[in-house]
Amino acid sequence: MTTLFEQPPDDARFDGPEPDAPRLTGQLLRTWTVMSDHKWRTTAEIAAVTRDPATSIQAQLRHLRKERFGAYLVECRRRNEKGRWEYRVGEKGEGIPKHSRCSNCEVLEAEIVRLEGLLVTRR
After folding, report:
1. pLDDT mean over 36-48
2. Which of 30, 91, 100, 118 has the most other CB atoms within 10 Å of its CB?
3. Contacts 24+ apart (CB under 8 A), 7-12
4. What is the pLDDT of residue 106?
């Protein structure tokens, strides 16, 4: 069975005031527990289960990427055209990719290069 921490490292603590640590640890554990099945979910879907605010869930997903919290693979992608994003937590220690590459990535990257070129020529 996979656990969030085999043994919590000494530096597995949060930035900020020490009294917040129990609350933040609880949020982290609830978020990880929901996401440990590696399924894609929006922050609203995670919040419906954990009862934590969506902004706190986003922060905990960022924490899961940090080495001191396990360096979990946390991916995100667009769910639909209305700008909804969904997240999936992979295995512990698998790295830090933030976004899955979308089918339009190459097109967008080419457009960025083109626009940067226009900026340079207009200076």
Report:
1. 94
2. 30
3. 9/68, 11/68, 12/68, 12/69
4. 63
Q: Are 25 and 31 in contact (CB under 8 A)?
A: no
Phi, psi of 2 (to 5 degrees): -80, 140
Cα–Cα distance measured from residue 27 to residue 89, given in angstroms and rounded to the nearest whole number: 15
Neighbouring CB atoms inside 10 A of 77's CB total: 13
Cα atoms in the Cβ-side hemisphere of radius 13 Å centred on 60:
27
Q: pTM for the whole thing?
A: 0.67
Which structure tokens are listed for 91? 């295995």
Q: For residue 56, how many other CB atoms are within 10 A of its CB?
A: 19
When the pLDDT of each residue in the chain is averaged and rounded to a whole number, the result is 78
CATH architecture entry for 18-122: Orthogonal Bundle (1.10)
Length of the chain (residues):
123
Q: Tokens 């527990």 identify what position?
A: 33
Quick: pLDDT tens for 64-94. 988 888 888 898 888 887 778 899 998 887 7
Count CB atoms within 10 A of the CB of residue 55: 10
Amino acid letter, residue 4: L
